[in-house]
Design a protein that fits this description.
Two copies of one chain form a homodimer. Chain A is of the alpha/beta class. The first copy, chain A, has helices spanning 16-20, 44-61, 74-81, 90-102, 121-133, 158-169, 180-185, 190-193, 206-216, 225-241, 254-266, and strands spanning 3-11, 31-38, 66-70, 86-89, 148-153, 173-178, 199-203, 246-248. In chain A, helix 3 links the parallel strand 3 (66-70) and strand 4. At the A-B interface, helix 1, helix 4, helix 5, helix 6 and helix 11 of A face helix 1, helix 4, helix 5, helix 6 and helix 11 of B.
């Protein structure tokens, strides 16, 4: 049975950065973490409320909670830390020491990191828009503007990967399905050839694709294992023939696929 | 003129967590940071390559680079840290101390944090699917399954906020536009009433909406300032009348809007 611990993410802003550190909890698989976000904690009242919740968590788990915190206000920080908890303070561990290295006082206002005025915010929103209007081969207009065009068989993960690239990195990612027509013809869709340098392929294992498609259209030819195998083999051949770098999405998350694609974008294949 | 510094995010996995800390650089507005991600740094060769890049960055900026690193392999860590750079090591600052608190050795394998098998990954993918098929009132089927239904006038930010909620938090977020028909009738679309407890509104300032819509359909009635004002006032009235909590997207990022919505979901209005 796993040990139970509660982790609080406390921020005077959205808590996005503190929350991202929650991923590091995966390094401790013997513990089951209950994760609680307390964004916009920007008053003494809210600090006291958080401390009450620490007590309840401690009573429930039998262990003090872990608190990952990012509070600009120094009095609020001190007030919070008077509680019995294990604190990871982003100001202590990261922001203040970095300030020394940079010889600059950090800003301590609320929600510095995730405002609408943040660097690249507008770019990210533009990219999301672009990606949604260029999903699944919806249109070829504007491919000039695309930074990435993902191709692959239907349901291999193109859409969520494109959206992640846009949302997280502001990359204008179109995606274009490879369909039976393409396989019969034995060439990529004509429109893709002039953008070949920004095309990346996704592939997937046949049994996984069979499962995914069966959820959508059970007992169809489309979802049959045989058809999945055929489509995948043909798609991979097309990609190989055209020297398109590709990755298998079967056991990779959208974070992993995006990191692979970004790396290839920045380091063109020799 | 801003000071130039280069920041490297080095990870043996995707670098997503290290990269998230990049948001904290916003606390230092006097510096312009060039951000370089080096994911999948999992061999001595790649470590050496990174060190070469540190030297080039230092030569370019006239200052040593900042390195935010998450490497499970202890020899790789030591090798990298022999370089002249300012290091923020997620193992030193977060993972190892947390291991002491939890009385557990952390896993040090590659890419622990962002695998496809991570907690909630499947849930997030399901939510993205749901959100995309329930975008912009595309269908009312399955509203029972929605955890959030965002409403608001066309182009007020419903779509990117819904997608962010799904992608980041695994929240099944539908969205439904309020259109002139609704305003004439003076009631919400009928389908929404039985889901009223999971509806959240977005609104926007008229001049901002006018700009956004003008990019899409210049000189249309749709985009005219007068029409924007009228639509917004009527939509806000509808939300007020139905006690729907709402937030203004004009100066809020999708991170901020999502944090506000999640908080309201978890703490029902009294």
């Amino acid at each position: 049975m796993k040990i139970e611990r509660t982790v609080f993410f406390i921020s005077d802003g959205t808590g996005t950065t503190a929350g991202a550190l929650g991923q590091l909890l995966a390094h401790f698989p013997q513990t089951h973490f209950t994760q609680v976000r307390l964004p916009f904690t920007d008053s003494v009242e809210k600090i006291e409320d958080a401390k009450q919740r620490f007590l309840m968590a401690k009573a429930g788990d039998g262990m003090r909670p872990v608190v990952i915190m990012s509070l600009g206000n120094i009095e609020h920080r001190a007030l919070l830390k008077a509680a019995d908890a294990y604190f990871i303070d982003l100001f202590n561990t990261f922001i203040d020491p970095l300030g020394l290295e940079l010889a600059q006082e950090p800003l301590t206002g609320k929600g510095i990191a995730h405002g609408v005025m943040g660097e690249n915010y507008h770019e990210r929103m533009e990219a999301i828009n672009f990606t949604l209007t260029h999903d699944d081969g919806m249109t070829n207009a504007g491919f000039e503007e695309a930074q990435v065009i993902l191709i692959g068989v239907s349901r291999c993960g193109k859409t969520p990967t494109s959206i992640y690239l846009a949302m997280q990195f502001g990359v204008k990612a179109a995606n274009y399905p490879l369909i039976p027509e393409d396989f019969e013809r034995g060439t990529l869709p004509e429109v893709l050839y002039k953008h070949i340098d920004k095309i990346y392929g996704l592939t997937i294992k046949a049994d996984r694709l069979h499962n995914v498609r069966s959820e959508r259209r059970p007992n169809s030819v489309y979802a049959s294992l045989e058809n999945c195998k055929k489509e995948i083999a043909t798609a991979e051949n097309l990609m190989r023939k055209n020297n398109i770098p590709w990755a298998d999405s079967t056991s990779r998350s959208i974070e992993e696929l995006s990191a692979i694609i970004l790396q290839k974008m920045r380091q063109p294949e020799k």
